[in-house]
């Protein structure tokens, strides 16, 4: 991860508009809303970034060593399969290398509510990750993988991710959003290995 005086770009993947706002595929957006709401001394708000097709909020996080880290929270306004364009544009504008990018996304291959951290690796059929890797020219960025589980029965995964969780699962879904926000903060504070030890040990 870059030196603590360099900003980090935290990207939440999702689809734009109220139709998709509470769906499983938009958990990345929801995690960024949670992080913006936690900003100290007051919540941060998102606004359109004119040089990219994204909404951003800027916050500063106090580090365990007493320093601070600037975070740029970004929600691409493109559809999921075109996420890479806004991510790459933001990285260029703010001069942030892929090592300083954290992407938060839903993960079918993890049970609901499970949060896992990694750098690089494959995209697992996730169109937002595939687009991001292509636009950045590398897979070597940090991932916060938020489990949503596999669809029941023979439901098409595409239909499953674009639905809101049923009422009986919404408390667990909200908890996963909060825990993923905790994981982002751990990455900022501790780096990948320290954050993995904290988050994966839960």
From TrEMBL:
Annotated site (Stabilizes the basic form of H active site to accept a proton): 106
One biological process term in Gene Ontology: protein quality control for misfolded or incompletely synthesized proteins
EC number annotated for this UniProt entry: 3.1.1.29
Keyword hit for Cytoplasm: yes
SUPFAM superfamilies hit by this protein: Peptidyl-tRNA hydrolase-like
Record-listed tRNA binding positions: 20, 79, 81, 127
Entry's localization field: Cytoplasm
InterPro entries the record matches: Pept_tRNA_hydro, Pept_tRNA_hydro_CS, Pept_tRNA_hydro_sf
GO cellular component: cytoplasm
Keywords assigned by UniProt, alphabetized: Cytoplasm, Hydrolase, RNA-binding, tRNA-binding
One example GO MF annotation: tRNA binding
Site feature location: Discriminates between blocked and unblocked aminoacyl-tRNA: 15
Record carries keyword Hydrolase: yes
Active site residues according to the UniProt entry: 25 (proton acceptor)
Catalytic reaction list: an N-acyl-L-alpha-aminoacyl-tRNA + H2O = an N-acyl-L-amino acid + a tRNA + H(+)
Pfam families to which the protein is assigned, alphabetical: Pept_tRNA_hydro (PF01195)
Main enzyme class: hydrolase
Similarity field: Belongs to the PTH family.
Role played: Hydrolyzes ribosome-free peptidyl-tRNAs (with 1 or more amino acids incorporated), which drop off the ribosome during protein synthesis, or as a result of ribosome stalling.
Complexes and interactors: Monomer.
Protein name as catalogued: Peptidyl-tRNA hydrolase
Annotated organism of origin: Corynebacterium sphenisci DSM 44792
Name of the gene: pth
């Amino acid at each position: 991860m870059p030196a603590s005086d360099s900003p980090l770009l935290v990207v939440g993947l999702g689809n734009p508009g109220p139709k998709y706002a509470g769906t499983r595929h938009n958990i990345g957006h929801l995690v960024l809303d949670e992080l913006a709401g936690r900003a100290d001394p007051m919540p941060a708000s998102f606004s359109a970034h004119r040089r990219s097709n994204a909404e951003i909020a800027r916050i500063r996080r106090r580090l365990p060593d007493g320093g601070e880290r600037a975070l740029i929270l970004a929600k691409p306004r493109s559809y999921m399969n075109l996420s890479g364009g806004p991510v790459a544009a933001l990285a260029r504008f703010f001069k942030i290398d892929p090592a300083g990018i954290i992407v938060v996304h839903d993960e079918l291959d993890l049970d609901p509510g499970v949060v896992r951290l990694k750098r690089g690796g494959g995209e697992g059929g996730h169109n937002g990750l595939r687009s991001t890797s292509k636009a950045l020219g590398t897979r070597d960025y940090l991932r916060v993988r938020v489990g949503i589980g596999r669809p029941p029965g023979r439901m098409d995964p595409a239909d499953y991710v674009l639905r809101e969780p049923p009422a009986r699962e919404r408390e667990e879904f909200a908890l996963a959003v909060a825990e993923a926000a905790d994981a982002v903060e751990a990455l900022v504070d501790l780096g990948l290995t320290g954050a993995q030890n904290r988050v994966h040990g839960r």
